[in-house]
Amino acid sequence: MRGAQLKAWLFMAPLVAVNLLVIAGPGLMSVYYSFTDWDGLNSPGLVGFANYTALFGDADFLRALLHNLLWTAFFLVVPMSLGLLGAFLLTRIKRFQLVFRVLYFVPYVIATVVSATIWRQILSPTSGIGPALSDLGIPWLKDVNFLGDGDIALGTVAFVNNWQWWGFLVVIFLASMQSIEPSLYEAARMDGANTWREFWHITLPAIRPTFMFLSLMTVIWSFLVFDYIYILTQGGPAGSTDVLSTVMYRMAFEQQQAGYASAIGVILALISAATVGGYLYLRRRLKWEM
Amino acid sequence: MARRGTAKRPFAYLILIILAAYAVVPMVIFLLASLKTPGEISQSPLSLPGKFRWENFATAWSDADMGRGLGNSALIAVSTGAGVAVIAGCAAYALTRLALPKPGLFIMYLLVASSLPIQLFLVPLLSMWTKIGLYDNRFGLIVIYWAIYSPFATLLIRTFLLAVPKDYEAAARLDGAGEITVFTRIVFPLIWPGVLTAALVAGLQAYNEFLLAVTFIQDSTKLPASVALYSFQQGLSPNWALVSAAGLIMVLPVLVLFIVLNRRFVEGYTSSGMTG
């Protein structure tokens, strides 16, 4: 059956070709470049593990890594809670469920650039919500420079990103909650369980696979975050919102340290791989179903 | 069954309405801003404009070059969607119907490829694209989108193919139909919803994508809407009325699609989010 195999390969060829060209090839080149002093233009020279050892003495890199960790914690807590809350309450109501679901989902459909722009305007210290509220007699936010104050800029960007993200979690959690057997709730009600106990003892265990999967995605994606930070603050002021991706971007395209940037890219890929590996291991050990 | 109207669970509705306000109020402020003067925005972002300034949209259209941006974005989104549908459709067909050796290995590769971060291959890819003339080239960007959006689309279309019984095709093959005929006449009519969803998701992701677009396109005449808007809103105090109008121009086509194709949209988008 050589002919049949050849035909199968022909159908597979376009996918394999673009993948090798764009992802696998450059990905492997990145691993190689991470061991060189490549500047992005001239031919690279091997430097062994110098880039990697330099990274762990680089204050910018370590601060960015810390910011990624804080970002991960924020996104594991805030949007996940909002998503669970919204979805659980939606399962409890009969009317307007679809309306709420659509309203929550709309920000997710809006392009990142647009939602970042919406919030840049609302948070503007000169024409945003702060001055407007102070005109109405609420002065607390008057002089807050949300994106320009290094102490709160990272939290502000995370808040903006959360605005676009949590509604997506509502939709996913809701779909998962709707497949729970109603008889489970009826039995709990017979035993006199209140709403909170129903959520804690029935809903949450029943949607555990979805919950764990979304947590996994949150962790992976929190280490790769780029768009909102690049658009809103470019990592500033003074590095207070830098994450690994923005440091990498600056190294590669502004400071001509492509080898160093490649090392950051490899570390990002390793973090993703380790997260997925840990998740698969846990899933097998604890026998979760997907 | 007990009646459960809004009166039954006031507390649940209250929280749901607060959450809805969180989602909607920023969009309303944005919509209002696009119809005001910059002076009105800084005076009171929440109030209605004194006079609806529809001309903001015309000004933004020309000042931010949104017309060209939308044209470029449409070209990129449609080519991405169509290309991904073809590439992923063929691959999914090979995985489920043809004598591909070790399809499990390919599926594993697709899962790995779709979870590799762009950051891993960005730098060498830019250098390579510059060498072969695909940098600052819309086709070059489209090829990248083909590569990164095809793995998920393949897995999606595969699930549709697995649901189609093979008997139909066997009968057609017995009648002497070739592979192309079997695919276009028998299989495709049964799986087109999956293919359409995959194309839609890929096209929209390309439309909204930022990191690759801002890295790979430089020439102002080739910029997609996302990057055109990004440059337009830069600077310390941009004209927020025009920026909002430009942003709305970019969102409007997607919102229209969202309303027209709500079901497919939500399903496709959520499943793509599930695989990253």
From TrEMBL, chain B:
<keyword id="KW-0813">Transport</keyword>
<feature type="transmembrane region" description="Helical">
    <location>
        <begin position="107"/>
        <end position="127"/>
    </location>
</feature>
<dbReference type="GO" id="GO:0005886">
    <property type="term" value="C:plasma membrane"/>
</dbReference>
<feature type="transmembrane region" description="Helical">
    <location>
        <begin position="240"/>
        <end position="261"/>
    </location>
</feature>
<keyword id="KW-1003">Cell membrane</keyword>
<feature type="domain" description="ABC transmembrane type-1">
    <location>
        <begin position="70"/>
        <end position="261"/>
    </location>
</feature>
<dbReference type="GO" id="GO:0055085">
    <property type="term" value="P:transmembrane transport"/>
</dbReference>
<dbReference type="Pfam" id="PF00528">
    <property type="entry name" value="BPD_transp_1"/>
</dbReference>
<feature type="transmembrane region" description="Helical">
    <location>
        <begin position="139"/>
        <end position="161"/>
    </location>
</feature>
<keyword id="KW-1133">Transmembrane helix</keyword>
<dbReference type="InterPro" id="IPR000515">
    <property type="entry name" value="MetI-like"/>
</dbReference>
<protein>
    <submittedName>
        <fullName>ABC transporter permease</fullName>
    </submittedName>
</protein>
<feature type="transmembrane region" description="Helical">
    <location>
        <begin position="182"/>
        <end position="207"/>
    </location>
</feature>
<keyword id="KW-0472">Membrane</keyword>
<dbReference type="InterPro" id="IPR035906">
    <property type="entry name" value="MetI-like_sf"/>
</dbReference>
<feature type="transmembrane region" description="Helical">
    <location>
        <begin position="74"/>
        <end position="95"/>
    </location>
</feature>
<comment type="similarity">
    <text>Belongs to the binding-protein-dependent transport system permease family.</text>
</comment>
<keyword id="KW-0812">Transmembrane</keyword>
<feature type="transmembrane region" description="Helical">
    <location>
        <begin position="12"/>
        <end position="35"/>
    </location>
</feature>
